[in-house]
Write a structure and sequence with these properties.
transmembrane; single chain; mainly alpha; 269 residues
Amino acid sequence: MGSGLVALSVLRQIHRFRRPWSHRVLIGAGLLTAGLGLLTARGSWPSRDLLWTILAPIGSLPALVAVVSAAATLSWWTDQRLGRLGRASLSEGAHVAAAAATAGNFLDLSLLTGVLEVHRWRRVGRVTSGAFPLGRWRSLARADLRRLFRTPGALPLWSGLALVPYAAAGLAPTWAPLAQLLAACAATSRLAAGLRTINRSPALRRALGGSDSGLRAVHLTVPSSGALVWCLGTAPATWQSGPWLWFVAAVGAVAVTYRLATRPPRTTT
């Protein structure tokens, strides 16, 4: 199945599949495979019995033959069409890979999120403009909220990360609070595009006027609200360990997001 996923990825890269949902199928198949493997390896005996009950009617040998045959067919089909993989298609995502490597070396995720944010906004295209309400701070808050709804994939990922604490609570309850905290930081960071934009552009701050602390405070409203709602929604996952752990996760997520978005850029000598 892994070789089949690689083959599908290559076929999409050479534009063999032009359907917009093909990459979602790849991601869904990969997550489903990882989830079933994790459930089989780390799950309790009742969960393994339930998984076997669901998969047993399919038959192990026919399923194995079908998966191996599909992977082999896709691999052969990809090998026949590798000649269509041009240099432009091959290097299309090279800047993302370089940014990911640099972010890993410096332990600074902002280096990667900035590149991904520019890449996402290039795919947005044209949007419908609208008027802002009266009042300086209300207008800035509304603009930040509108930016959130126009950012592709921000809200789906923010809500999808809520499954992480529940999965950790079912597989390893001891690590559920830590999983909630880390997932809360990742989810809240998805809502801080406005805060990152304000901090990275001194010219934009001068054009908007006011103090830097005031601009950062108004652009922290959306991430703080999102962190509070997210942690309230995942509170049942850690309720047995402590009823107030969701509040600690919310405060920690906001603090980490603010620090990552407002810290000065790294300089080398």
